[in-house]
């Protein structure tokens, strides 16, 4: 399925109803995911593929969500987790954190070594929920095409908030639909500010 045939982000999220917890501290991931299973009575068999959310959860990625297929949203990734995601087929990484934030700032050099795409679009809390930042993330996600993309911040809170505003500003989502997008992608403490920006008042 090509990017052009995907449903808009907000339309794919209206039926989602489960939410994960929120924290700024990512958990350490195992170095790799099991790729094969052995049997005493037969040859080694390749394990069945798992989706992006299942893969990230197995890696220990905190507050992981998959609001649409192939788009993973989460807390800050560790280098081991990014290694595992690259092996799982992720080719594009976007951070909404400033390089001076704890645990951030190493990704540019990492991406250059590994030959993957990395972009930094710093979002300074509510002040960073701007049309320009939403447009920047939108362009990167669209440029990735059918490639798997990981979009993260400290806890997925900023990610969910910016995706909510992107859905409203760029995809025509109603305020309520945009809020559903944000929640499904990890928005938590920024929810009242996003509601205000959407003209909904305090949720």
Task: Please give a handful of descriptors for the protein shown.
7 helices, alpha/beta, 203 residues, globular, five-stranded mixed β-sheet, Protein-Tyrosine Phosphatase, Chain A
Your description of this structure?
The chain has a domain at 47-156: Protein-Tyrosine Phosphatase, Chain A, CATH 3.90.190.10. It is globular. The chain has helices at residues 52-59, 79-87, 107-114, 131-143, 157-171, 175-184, 191-197, and strands spanning 36-39, 42-46, 65-68, 71-74, 90-95, 117-120, 148-152. The termini are far apart. The protein is an alpha/beta fold.
In short:
This protein has seven helices and seven strands; from the N terminus they run ββαββαβαβαβααα.
Describe the secondary structure blueprint for this structure.
Layout: E1 36-39, E2 42-46, H1 52-59, E3 65-68, E4 71-74, H2 79-87, E5 90-95, H3 107-114, E6 117-120, H4 131-143, E7 148-152, H5 157-171, H6 175-184, H7 191-197
Parallel strand pairs: 4-7, 5-6, 5-7
Antiparallel strand pairs: 1-2, 3-4
Query: Separation of termini?
Result: 36 Å
| Major sheet characteristics | 5 strands, mixed
What is the top-level CATH class of the domain at 47-156? Alpha Beta
**What's the average pLDDT?**
81
Q: Considering the protein shown, what is the CATH homologous superfamily of the domain at 47-156?
A: Protein tyrosine phosphatase superfamily
- Count of helix runs: 7
Strand content: 15-25%
Listing every helix as H and every strand as E from the N terminus to the C terminus, the arrangement reads: EEHEEHEHEHEHHH
Alpha-beta content class:
alpha/beta
Overall number of strands: 7
Helix content estimate: 25-40%
Radius of gyration: 17 Å
Shape: globular
* CATH architecture type of the domain at 47-156: Alpha-Beta Complex
CATH fold node name of the domain at 47-156 = Protein-Tyrosine Phosphatase, Chain A
In the predicted model, the low-confidence regions spanning at least 5 consecutive residues are: 1-8, 10-49
């Amino acid at each position: 399925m090509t990017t052009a045939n995907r449903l808009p982000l907000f339309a794919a999220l209206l039926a989602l109803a489960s939410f994960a917890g929120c924290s700024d501290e990512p958990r350490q991931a195992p170095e790799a995911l099991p790729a094969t299973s052995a049997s005493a009575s037969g040859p080694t068999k390749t394990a069945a593929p798992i989706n992006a959310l299942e893969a990230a959860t197995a890696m220990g990625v905190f507050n992981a969500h998959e609001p649409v297929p192939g788009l993973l949203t989460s807390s800050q990734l560790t280098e081991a987790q990014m290694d595992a995601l690259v092996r799982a087929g992720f080719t594009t990484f976007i951070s909404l954190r400033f390089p001076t934030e704890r645990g951030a700032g190493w990704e540019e050099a990492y991406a250059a070594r590994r030959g993957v795409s990395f972009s930094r679009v710093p979002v300074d809390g509510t002040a960073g929920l701007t049309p320009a930042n939403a447009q920047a993330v939108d362009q990167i996600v669209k440029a990735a095409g059918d490639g798997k993309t990981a979009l993260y911040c400290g806890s997925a809170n900023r990610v969910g908030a910016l995706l909510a505003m992107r859905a409203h500003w760029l995809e025509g989502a109603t305020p309520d639909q945009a809020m559903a997008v944000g929640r499904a992608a990890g928005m938590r403490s920024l929810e009242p500010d996003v509601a205000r920006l959407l003209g909904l008042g305090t949720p």
